[in-house]
Specification:
Helix content of chain B: 55-70%
Order of helices and strands of chain B: HHEHEEHEEHHEE
CATH architecture of the largest domain in chain B: 2-Layer Sandwich
CATH topology of the largest domain in chain B: Heat Shock Protein 90
Structural class of chain A: alpha/beta
Strand content of chain A: 15-25%
Largest sheet of chain B: 5 strands, mixed
Radius of gyration of chain A: 13 Å
CATH class of chain A: Alpha Beta
Number of helices of chain B: 6
Distance between the termini of chain A: 16 Å
Number of strands of chain B: 7
CATH superfamily of the largest domain in chain B: Histidine kinase-like ATPase, C-terminal domain
CATH superfamily of chain A: Response regulator
Oligomer: heterodimer
CATH topology of chain A: Rossmann fold
Number of strands of chain A: 5
Chain lengths: 123, 220
């Protein structure tokens, strides 16, 4: 997992930078995007293997970003982050091709386990 | 068909749901930040940090409060979404459990415990969820208003002679509340409860011998 390219996408800067630091302490390098448009540009410039994507973002919402990722880069595994009480978006996301979803606040060990499962499921 | 009152409730629910989402984001940031401190502690030797154990204890305390906060926002979020669809099919057991979570604080202030009775399968009813919650809340408030010594209130949805019923039973701690039912039937809250139950197509009755308020519903 150490050479894994991870992109974190969330409009909450403190959340995404702290999560990136925690992943780094575990030997995982992650870049961060604060909105959907930037995320898509970053994906085109340097394609990650995994995208951790918040559903509720201003501007381009998470589900729309997911659709565009899957249209251009179907091989990227996307794990959605939803709010509590938002299982509807998580389920909709999986129907659109997300690997899975987690509800915030997340458990980092659970996130890493999901990332491992996502990588193992790739051909 | 939504009238002005329904629109008011829907507006209130929508705003509340939005705010709970914001609070949840704050909790997520606090959780990640305290998690980062835990991670750093884990790689810090005892010699480098003399107060490591106090730090760990405090971080555990923070984590406990985060979990408490998440539970509260979950409950509030579910409550905020109650007006989304009305009428709607609901499980009386789930509504009773939700009310216990939402109203426990009020009950605790009066030294009253709040719980649900045993369940025996789903009890589905098509009704107006907000008014149903109001009816349960008013029933609980009636006992909270009248008790002086505390006790336990049990919400017990069940079937009585094929009718869907929610029983709100009060067990007092002492015999000081023995004459509870006389004031109930003449209270403003009782009139308000009757009105709410009439809107729901049901009735409210007071069973003095069982120390219980019974809310009867039409099963649909």
């Amino acid at each position: 997992m150490e050479n894994l390219k991870i992109l974190l996408v969330d409009d909450e800067k403190e959340f995404v930078t702290t999560l990136a630091e925690r992943l780094e302490l575990r030997g995982l390098q992650a870049r961060a995007a604060l909105n959907g448009e930037d995320a898509l540009h970053m994906i085109e410039a340097d394609t990650p293997q995994i995208v951790i994507l918040d559903v509720m973002m201003p501007g381009l919402g998470g589900l729309e970003v997911l659709k565009r990722i899957k249209a251009q880069h179907p091989q990227i595994a996307v794990i959605l982050l939803t709010g509590r009480g938002s299982t509807k978006e998580g389920i909709e996301g999986m129907q659109l091709g997300a690997f899975d979803y987690l509800m915030k606040p997340i458990n980092i060990d659970e996130l890493i386990k999901k990332m491992q499962e996502a990588i193992q499921s790739q051909p | 068909m939504f009238g002005p009152k329904d629109n008011e409730v829907a507006f209130f629910g929508k705003i509340t749901a939005g705010i709970t989402h914001e609070i949840n984001n704050v909790l997520a940031i606090i959780k990640e930040s305290s998690g980062l401190l835990e991670d750093i502690l884990a790689v810090t030797g005892e010699d480098a940090f003399p107060h490591k154990d106090k730090f760990e204890t405090t971080l555990n305390r923070i984590l406990g409060q985060i979990q408490r906060g998440v539970s509260i926002t979950n409950n509030l979020n579910r409550f905020a979404h109650s007006p989304d669809h009305s009428p709607a099919r609901v499980d009386l057991n789930e509504v009773a459990e939700q009310m216990v979570l939402l109203v426990t604080r009020f009950a605790r202030l009066k030294n009253v415990g709040l719980e649900t009775g045993p369940q025996d399968g789903p009890l589905i009813i098509k009704t107006h969820p907000v008014s149903l919650q109001m009816a349960l809340f008013i029933s609980i408030e009636i006992f909270l208003d009248l008790t002086t010594s505390g006790g336990i209130i049990t919400l017990f949805p069940r079937k009585i002679q094929n009718k869907l019923v929610v029983g709100i039973h009060f067990e007092s701690k002492t015999s000081d509340d023995a004459d509870l039912f006389q004031p109930i039937l003449s209270s403003n809250r009782w009139a308000s409860l009757q009105e709410t139950m009439a809107y729901l197509g049901g009735t409210a009755q007071a069973d003095e011998s069982a120390s219980e308020i019974l809310l009867y519903f039409t099963e649909t």
